[in-house]
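quick one
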Amino acid sequence: MQKITPGILSQLKKIDSKEISGSRLGINYERLLAEPELTAAELALSQIGNFEPLDYKLDTHGIESVIQEKYASDWTDYLPRADRPNNRKSLTLTTIPGWDHTSPPSIPDAAKHLGRIPAELEFCNPTPLYNDCDRAYPGNTSLKAFLDEWQPLGRTFIVNSNTGGYFVPHRDHPGHPRPCFRLVAFLKNCGPYDYDWWMDDRKANIELGRVYYVNTKMTHRTISWVDNSWHLIVNVPLTLENVDRVIKNLQHRH
Ligand SMILES: [Fe+2]
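structure w/ fe (ii) ion:
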């Protein structure tokens, strides 16, 4: 494959991605030079939309029954705020070696534990919860079967947002190329009056159990109006193969 010549990119300051927040990376020209195909991957993703349903319909009853039977008391505080209340918890599905479903799913928490900032792919190890979520009625997909198809994955977890639980307007990995993109599914109490996911000034239409490609480079914010609103966050490594799989599994085709 022909390499991009540095040109204007070479004038950009060299960035050590291990020493800077993911939201301040900008253009990582060294990685672009090494993997120019990632620009094609981003271009392909940018053409399909920002909140796009895929062909996967997860068995939400199967996931809920596993959690109620074995994991109901294991929800862990997710990025708790010291300055104001924010009512949300998580259960982890993939994590770093030695951690389990009760371990926090954030990179800052793992960095504190490891003494260095880990790469997204270091979080690909299935937890006991991941392996237990293998139940599905005909026509639906079990959570385990869905995740297995996308391995190796980055951080993957379920968020449980209680009344008033929110994420302020933010962007995930606005730089280029990003290490991973997001797939999101809504598992429980995500009806139009239960839970809001806003993309810019537009509230997303949510189907329970449906998996969506969500462009989280775009400013988004969420809030729950009820207790126990559950959604799944999947960090998929940005590769041509994974983008190809998204495009081949779009729900709306001709
Ligand atoms: Fe986000």
